[in-house]
Task: structure prediction
Amino acid sequence: MGMAVPRSVWMWVLVVGAFALGAWAQSAGLIADILWRWEDIVFLARQHMQLVAISGGLAILVGVPLGILLSRPAMRRMAETLMQGLNVGTTIPTLAVLALSMTFLGIGTVPAIFALWIASLLPIVRNTYIGILEVPAALREAAQGMGMTNLQMLWRVELPNALWVIFAGIRTALAINVGTVPLAFLIGGGGLGELIFTGIALAETGMMLAGAIPTAILAVLTDFLVATVARFTVPRGVNPLAR
Amino acid sequence: MITLENVTKIFESPSGAITAVDHVSFEVPEGEICILLGPSGCGKTTTMKMVNRLIEKTGGKIFVDGKDIDDYDPVTLRRTMGYVIQQIGLFPNMTVEENIMVVPRLVGTPDAKARKRAAELLGMVALDPGIFLKRFPRELSGGQQQRVGVARALAADPPVLIMDEPFGAIDPINRETIQDEFLKMQANLKKTIMFVSHDIDEAVKMGDRIAIFREGRLEQYDRPDTVLAHPTNSFVREFVGGDRTLKRLRLVRVGDAMHPGAPYVFPEDRIGDAVARMHEYGHRSIVVLNREDMTPTGLIRLAEVEEARGSCGEHAMRLPGRVHVDADLRRAVSEMFTQDTTWLACVDSDGRFKGHITQRAITHLLGETYRHPNEGVVPDTRRQRGEAVLEPETGPIPGAPA
Result:
């Protein structure tokens, strides 16, 4: 990359910026305000991550096999139609999905998880499907010509070579998921949204930030976690990070 | 041995049925390389893929080593045949070693044995196992990848290999090398190979037999020399090219067109001996050899020394050129043209003088088949080395212009 500004300069800008931000927050009494809510933050963050884990986990458990299923030659014709449907589904705002979910399932954790599951499902299915589809035809021909059964081809050739793309889908899905969980508060799902929305409603910046900052940190951490798992799971030969 | 009997493939398409392969029958004998050759869309690849049932035939029978391939389940069948494709198709998620071990693992070979075999095969395709076993395909050059591709196809030691333009994606320089190495390997392995190509030069070089296809029909199936010397119709004649006789040069080894037992002298010999020997053989020139290692060092022309005195060494001139006995005639002719001469001294790997080859001997050998079309096909000397092809020519060495 021909970046004109050296990395160290950016690092300094970042550090100085963070320091300035901290100084400002300190003078406004915000840091004390946030720390005062520490117990709430921990409790709600845990609830937040539970929602992410359950809805995201279910989305992976359903999305990956569904994507694989759609990529099977027998399903090809149907798969395209279905993917179009899923793509349209992605355009529906998550807030609307939450509202619809509430209409059918009432309020509480279950409708929240359901809505989050729907929102995370699409990127996972799409990436699994496309990842497998984009495995070069030559690899398939070689595998078949060497006498692999379709199942052996899936396990030994198609999935390992699609894994990076599949993980990219999971990353996107979980990032969306963590960022969407605050909305779950609106239908009684709990999570850090409780601090954010209450803070907004009461015009209490400290309370709002006590929800918003941990949400942001959790999103970054989740992304990092998935990236790390991907880095160590994807075979070295097809892993762009393992050179 | 691969036998095709009336094999036909009809593809159904929206615009009607298309006959891709039309009643094709031929046989690839045990241990030979058969090149399926023809323009694109001629049915050669379809024919090949019907052998390992990647494409199911519409009609006819295919036998491999006498067994009907329809009696096997396609997956089992394919594991008994090596398969190499143009795009190589190494699995990027696996190391070179794992790639080679794919089929052995599929058929349940113990891991330790498969590993040993992988290292052995890598050595066979001229890649150092110590360096390459643990590498990933993306860390290899195209030529190295294709070598691994060949090693992988040989892993389970299948009697039959199916190759779809295996060297087509490699740059010309590497292609020559890999082709040569492959031929050397095949000389030991003696696999029965069906090999698709669209390149007549590759076909002539690699093939024991060439099957030329056009629009799903087999136009000619013969040894390369026969295809070049006696194309059965105008299509084949045009396909093999206007320089087809030149292509035949490749098929003959210098040693087989060479005139063995040519006379020579040593530098210490008196010039009178050289003159006497030239008269005895009716030659107009004679080669001077180094006595210690028998390498040709120079040349004496009769016209220039008939009245001379002294030793042969004093009158020796520069030798116009030499060629290895194992080189093909194309090399010899090229050397003749380079040196502006009509004959060359032939040497073995130690540089020892073995005889000489003349332009006339070459044209005579190539012309044989046209004079006696039923018997005169030159043998494919790469496989039948040492066979006498040509009676030693009597008479003077032509050429050698003063």
